[in-house]
From TrEMBL, chain A:
UniProt source species: mine drainage metagenome
Protein name: Acryloyl-CoA reductase electron transfer subunit gamma
Family, as annotated: Belongs to the ETF beta-subunit/FixA family.
GO molecular function: electron transfer activity
CDD domains in the record: ETF_beta
TrEMBL record, chain B:
Gene3D superfamilies xref list: FAD/NAD(P)-binding domain (3.50.50.60)
Keyword field contains Translocase: no
EC number: 1.5.5.1
Name under which the protein is recorded: Electron transfer flavoprotein-ubiquinone oxidoreductase
UniProtKB/TrEMBL annotation, chain C:
Keyword tRNA processing: no
Name listed for the protein in its UniProt record: Acryloyl-CoA reductase electron transfer subunit beta
Entry's Gene Ontology molecular function annotations: electron transfer activity; flavin adenine dinucleotide binding
Keywords: Electron transport, FAD, Flavoprotein, Transport
PROSITE patterns hit by this protein: ETF_ALPHA
CDD domains for this protein: ETF_alpha
Family named by the database record: Belongs to the ETF alpha-subunit/FixB family.
Gene3D superfamilies named in the record: HUPs, TPP-binding domain
A GO biological process held by the record: fatty acid beta-oxidation using acyl-CoA dehydrogenase
Keyword DNA-binding: no
Length: 280, 432, 363
């Protein structure tokens, strides 16, 4: 079995700052991490490797420094890593990204046929959850989103059974391979890398592919040119004009404060009082 | 099969990086193990970088090291509750290249340094903690990490694991740290636009300002505060002896919070966005508290060996220098075909004795003791000095001569003439 | 968009002349999502929003209903009319019983290619995101996910889709200039529910899926419904009492539950509280949790970080209790008490109790 896991290196958004005046992102010192959602996809792939025996290839498209993300994946137990990097990819939106990744997956497939492609549910920077579906459609693979568990894989029959989260319940789905699975967060817990894998990761020669090596012939399908969407404006949320009315009373006793608060609220919003009476 | 290297360096701070760089450049096989997510992710420093030590290791470091600002102005403030007296020293000679001191942000600096080390050929493994040393009798033969299959062997292990070296302690090379020998420092980084920093501190381009602070901000505890300008941020922090924190029952966080409210300090941080809060120990026991520095198959460098000059707030330069000498010792022995035995590693100590490191450590060896036994340096003096300044500067019809007399009187009320003289003498003795 | 670059040059006043191919696309569509016999409220919210856009552009608003051939499916068309649609595209087929990507993608793609809408909106639910991503790729058009605001540039006939970016600290507006339809997804409860008008009617245009079960590779073996009883329904709660890290200890959270019980409210929480395991993930309010719009939101020990704010900003009345008078929550709450939650909460619970008792007596 051959599984490709798509992972992305993202800025740790918890540590991003915005310039208060120019509203631009101050990137200085913001650490890059593996998109946390992608680790669930990787771990699910590694579990299949443990159970059925598999080759796990991790793939990313990004700047040269994204290599670190791949190396990390190797340390967890992935076998191979491919970094697709080219200036031509700058400014790619989800459609262009999935085009580039799909093309790279086709190249990887030539080397060893692929049975499953895994992606995370979404990225924390793009946050769109579209790249997975995009890849599947381009490669004409079956698409299974929000999968919480891969129940079984039958390599002979080319079948896979998964549990998929849907509104109001879980679907048990059977489909054929090759297929693309986007894995839901919280479905597993990433393993602790062994010493041997740590050594392997620090020595592993990551494969670095440019646009041609990734099999993309038409420049117009990637980067800004291949992206139907454009960001026309970035701005900070407008602060609300009126700030909260701070309840005060002489005693500053919690009881008096509470009573004063309720009197004010219900005077202004009489309907609310009825609503509460109804629900309580 | 367990892996084996010529040398294992534990820690990827300045001392470990210096050692690993030197060793790798000389063609020894080096493994560096760092417990942080990446080099620098757990490290804390003010931080001022002194060019000298780094220049010896990486002469062209200015080309691509992530330096923030070069220091053109040093301020020294003595604060009481609502004012400060201070000196500002700014000189255009600091504006001539090559610059001598820079501010930097450790997480970025360490990462850059480590990349250089890896390029030189050392193997780095992060997110891995060395849990103890592997011993064959008295001889260190490798390390054990917290990962499955974690033993790794080497002919020598360099302990560059920072203040409170647990490894040295576990192996019995290092006694338990005493609270009076370590300071606890807390600091925050406040982000603000470059223009604001330039305006507020009267600098342009890459110029920077350093403010050292003593006085009431430490509530009578032995310690200092500091404020450094970075490119897009200001670092503010305060450190006091661990033993003092224990006695005073203030938390470092509260201390910093109150310090930030000081009317002289608050405007410098206004509008900034606090992003990074960190606390770290600084070994300040000095020469008298230093552990053994070497033995059969091991050496200690940097903070782990107490190499900090608290008075001048030097640490990273001593760390790099000790790391370099440790590495050079091994390189020399290897070239001579000699083993890394205790007897041979003695050369490391000899190298240190020769260098500024041990000379400085010895020179300031009595400082910690002087401050410990004389709380007036952090208690009475700030008040007095600040009062004196206020008296002199307040225009109220009293002639200056009378004012001077009042000042002298107030000094003597709080501290006898003998006391004053004695204090000056003590400081002089400790520094000599 | 997988990565939002800093704003490029604003498009300014440059006239964008639509080419004829794009001009052929007209009208606004809302995909009507339903599962197990019920319309997902997000679809109705989107009809409300779609109505505004359609009126601005002077075009019709259509609902797209896909499902098994039966009365319930047809009734969804009426629901769509009641909530603002002028017409509905109805595709009925046995193969559309359960949601599966393949038949729904094909069906919706075919409809778009045939009837050519200029804008298509879907809910950012598991179903909506699955379908939108697939259809956008098949159509090779742009899709903006998780929008918080929708507008149109009437002259350029361009959808201005605004969404949070960079961990929620900024907003960005995204346009799809040279492709049609312009697609966007919006999370439940971000848009207000439009008034229902049962006097409205509209036209139904029916179409065929044109697929056979044997063409569809993925099979649904089983559906395991969630145990509904104890699942909190935060997005649709009228009253929510939320606690943050300021509650200090998991034990203190009982004070939140106590107040919630008196009010018949749901309990919400911030992310750190959820991550610490004090309450269930289902209760997280905010960017990576639920978006809520209750009539009353009581925020206790919550600083009001932007990522939390975006999830509850649309509440009718927000009351905040926080010991720090400078906490950002007071910038957008309606009422605030500055004080220790551990002493205020019990008093507030008592005050509500007393108030409700008198209100009840009064009738
Ligand atoms: C607030 C503050 C301000 C300072 N300001 C200055 C200044 O302005 N100028 C200056 O020169 N110095 C300053 N110093 C001192 C300086 O930071 C230190 O002296 C210097 O960092 C010491 O370097 P080191 O490599 O010995 O230790 P460290 O930098 O502490 O590095 C030790 C490394 O070892 C790793 N490690 C520890 N244990 C293990 C283990 N068991 N296994 C694996 N890895 C391990 C740690 O994660 C760490 O990365 C300051 C210190 C502080 C706290
Ligand atoms: C990509 C991303 C997604 C995120 N998604 C979400 C999300 O969906 N939801 C979410 O909530 N957060 C989210 N966050 C986290 C968010 O940025 C904040 O960290 C979080 O909302 C803060 O939670 P808090 O208000 O409980 O804690 P804090 O910010 O620590 O605030 C605690 C507050 O309690 C007050 N307090 C302390 N003691 C008392 C007392 N005794 N009485 C009264 N008040 C007291 C304090 O003054 C303080 O204001 C996200 C972050 C990122 C980066
Ligand atoms: N540049 C990329 N390289 C590799 N995988 C990616 C990239 N961008 C997105 N992905 C994958 O697609 C998933 C969804 O991303 P997104 O559509 O950006 O939310 C992620 O969880 C990744 O698995």
């Amino acid at each position: 079995m051959h599984i490709v896991v798509c992972i992305k290196q993202v800025p740790d958004s918890a540590q991003i700052r915005v310039h208060p005046v120019t509203n631009t992102i101050m990137r200085q010192g913001v650490p890059a991490i593996v998109n946390p959602y992608d680790l669930f996809a990787l771990e699910e792939a590694l579990r299949l490797k443990d159970e059925y025996g598999a080759r796990v290839t991790v793939l990313t498209m990004g700047p040269p420094m994204a290599e670190a993300a791949l190396r990390k994946a190797i340390s967890y137990g992935a076998d191979d890593a491919v970094l697709v990097t080219d200036r031509a990819f700058a400014g790619s939106d989800t459609l262009a990204t999935s085009c580039a990744l799909a093309s790279a997956i086709t190249q990887i497939h030539k080397d060893m046929p692929i049975d499953l492609v895994f992606t995370g549910k979404q990225t924390i920077d793009g946050d769109t959850a579209q790249v997975g579906p995009g890849i599947a459609k381009r490669l004409n693979m079956q698409l299974l989103t929000y999968v919480t568990k891969v129940r079984s894989v039958d390599l002979e029959k080319h079948e896979v059974v998964v549990e998929r989260r849907s509104e109001g319940g879980v679907q048990l789905l059977n489909t054929s391979t090759p297929s693309l699975i986007t894995v839901l967060e919280g479905t597993n817990e990433m393993r602790f890398a062994t010493m041997a894998n740590m050594f392997r990761a620090s020595r592993y020669p990551v494969k670095v592919w440019n646009r041609e090596q990734a099999g993309i012939e038409d420049v117009a399908t990637v980067g800004l040119k291949g992206s139907p969407t454009v960001v026309s404006k970035v701005f900070a949320p407008t602060p609300r004009a009126v700030k909260a009315e701070i309840i005060q009373c002489e005693s500053n006793d919690p009881k008096d404060l509470s009573v004063t608060l309720l009197a004010k609220v219900f005077a202004k919003y009489p309907k609310l009082e009825k609503e509460i009476a109804k629900s309580a | 099969m367990a892996e084996k290297f010529d040398v294992i360096v534990v820690g990827a701070g300045p001392s470990g990086n210096a050692a690993a760089l030197r060793l790798a450049e000389s063609g020894l096989s080096v493994l560096q193990i760092e417990r942080g997510e990446s080099p620098g992710s757990k490290n804390v420093q003010g931080a001022i970088l002194y060019s000298d030590a780094l220049e010896k290791l990486i002469p062209d470091f200015r080309d691509d090291a992530p330096l923030e600002r070069h220091i053109i102005e040093q301020r020294m403030w003595v604060l009481d509750d609502d004012s400060f007296v201070g000196t500002h020293y700014r000189s255009d000679s600091f504006n001539k290249e090559p610059y001598n001191r820079y501010t930097m942000i450790r997480s970025q600096f360490d990462k850059w340094f480590s990349e250089r080390v890896q390029k030189a050929g050392a193997l780095l493994i992060c997110e891995t903690t060395v849990s103890h040393l592997l011993l064959d009798g008295q001889r260190v033969i490798g390390v054990m990490t917290d990962r499955q299959g974690g033993e790794i062997y080497a002919d020598a292990v360099i302990l560059a694991d920072g203040v409170n070296s647990l490894l040295a302690k576990k192996a019995g090379f290092h006694p338990e740290l005493k609270p009076k020998n370590v300071a606890l420092a807390v600091k925050e980084i406040h982000f603000m636009p470059q223009e604001v920093i330039e305006q507020r501190f009267g600098v342009k381009g890459d110029e920077g300002v350093v403010i050292e602070m003593v006085g009431k901000i430490t509530k009578g505890m032995m310690g200092t505060g500091f404020l450094y300008t970075n490119r897009e941020s200001v670092t503010i922090g305060v450190g006091c002896m661990l033993s003092d924190f224990k006695n005073q029952k203030v938390t470092p966080y509260e201390l910093l919070e109150q310090m930030k409210q000081h009317p002289s300090i608050q405007p410098m941080l206004a509008g900034g966005e606090m992003k990074e809060y960190t606390a770290h120990l600084i070994p300040e026991g000095g020469f008298n508290a230093m552990p053994d520095l070497y033995g059969d198959g091991w050496m200690i460098v940097g903070d782990a060996g107490m190499f900090v000059n608290a008075v001048h707030r030097e640490g990273s330069n001593l760390a790099m220098t000790t790391g370099m000498h440790a590495a050079d010792t091994l390189i020399e022995l290897k070239a001579e075909g000699k083993e890394f035995s205790k007897a041979n590693l003695k050369r490391y100590k000899a190298r240190l004795d020769e260098s500024f490191v041990m000379k400085d450590m010895k020179k300031y060896k009595n400082m910690p003791e002087v401050f410990h036994t004389n709380p007036q340096f952090f208690n009475d003096y700030p008040d007095l000095i600040s009062q004196a300044a206020r008296t002199m500067l307040t225009v109220d019809g009293v002639d200056k001569k009378t004012k001077e007399r009042e000042i002298r009187k107030s000094f003597r009320q709080r501290r006898s003439l003998f006391g004053l003289m004695g204090d000056a003498f003590k400081l002089w003795r400790a520094l000599e | 968009m997988s990565e939002v670059p800093a704003a490029k040059k604003p498009l300014g006043k440059k006239r964008i002349e639509l080419d004829d191919r794009l001009k052929a696309y007209k009208g606004i569509w809302v995909f009507i999502e339903h599962e197990r016999g019920k319309i997902h409220p997000v679809s109705l919210e989107l009809l409300g929003e779609g109505r505004k856009l359609a009126d601005n552009l002077g075009v019709e608003l259509a609902g797209v209903v896909m499902g098994v051939p039966n009365e319930t499916t047809r009734s969804f068309c009426n629901e769509a009319f009641f909530h603002g649609a002028d017409l509905c595209y109805l595709m009925e087929d046995e193969l559309l019983t359960d949601y599966r990507n393949e038949p729904f993608t094909k069906g919706l793609t075919d409809l778009v290619n045939k009837y050519q809408p200029e804008i298509m909106l879907l809910g950012a639910t598991t179903l909506g995101r699955d379908l939108a991503g697939s259809v956008a790729t098949t159509l090779k058009t742009g899709l903006t996910a998780d929008c918080t605001e929708l507008n149109v540039d009437v002259e350029a006939r361009s959808l201005l889709a605004t969404r949070p970016t960079f961990g929620g600290s900024l907003l960005c507006t995204i346009q799809t200039l040279n492709y049609r339809p312009q697609m966007a997804t919006v999370r439940p409860r971000v848009m207000p529910m439009p008034e229902k008008d049962t006097s409205r009617t509209g036209r139904i245009i029916e179409d065929k899926l044109g697929m056979f079960e044997k063409d569809i590779i993925t099979k649904v073996l089983e559906f395991i419904p969630d145990a509904m009883q104890d699942k909190p329904q935060l997005p649709f709660a009228d009253i929510i009492v939320s606690g943050g890290r300021g509650m200090k200890k998991p034990e203190n959270f009982k004070l939140i539950w106590d107040l919630a019980e008196v009010l018949g409210a749901e309990v919400g929480a911030t992310r750190p509280v959820v991550q610490a395991g004090w309450v269930d993930l289902e209760r997280q309010v905010g960017q990576s949790g639920k978006t809520v719009r209750p009539k009353l939101y009581i925020a206790v020990g919550i600083s009001g970080a932007i990522q939390h704010r975006v999830g509850m900003d649309a509440s009718d009345v927000i009351i905040a209790i926080n010991s720090d008078a400078n906490a950002p929550i007071f910038d957008f709450a309606h009422y605030g008490i500055v004080g220790n939650a551990m002493t205020i909460l019990p008093a507030l619970t008592e005050a509500f109790k007393a108030h409700l008792a008198t209100a009840r007596k009064a009738g």
